[in-house]
Fold:
Amino acid sequence: RWGDVRAVRERQIWQRLELKNDADQVLLKLEYQLDNFQRLRQVLMQKMSVQHDGLVWPVTFRKGLTFHVINIVMLPVCAGAWLLMEGGQRVLFLFLCAFSTFALAKEYFGTVYRLRITHSEIEIRYPFRQLQLGRSQVTDVSMADESVQMAIHPEVQIIAHQIEKPIRLRQLGVDATRLYSLLAKWRGESRR
Structure:
């Protein structure tokens, strides 16, 4: 019964959602590979409200220090390795380094690393820029799945006025289902 479900937990390694009761017992396991999993998850999120007991705005989620360290360290490593190459190999390696460096930089600078939700707005931080969106600017919050090497990685997407592409929120130290539920609750409060 829907009333028995009190929490949804993402299990990235096992590629599933676990529905839990008040005693933290698993009631049901929903595998990401199920046919129409996205629709099932959508129905699940509509049928139940994930618990936000004691939630007080503001709340902040962020990527760990590892995200910055790995990305910042990898950029100069490519350049340093190129300097060590000799002769004809340098040209090929230069191309590979330039491509890798560009791809890493694009991913790093285009990835949200911090999200702060206050009562009236959300603050989205990238490494060198920041967005602040009020409730009226956010037109939709949805869940999507990114498939990487045969694994599904859920993410939350924010659609906002005058922003061309969805803002993708991934791996911010919180389950995507919980983050989606929090943002849906936040949006819903503006309609009261």
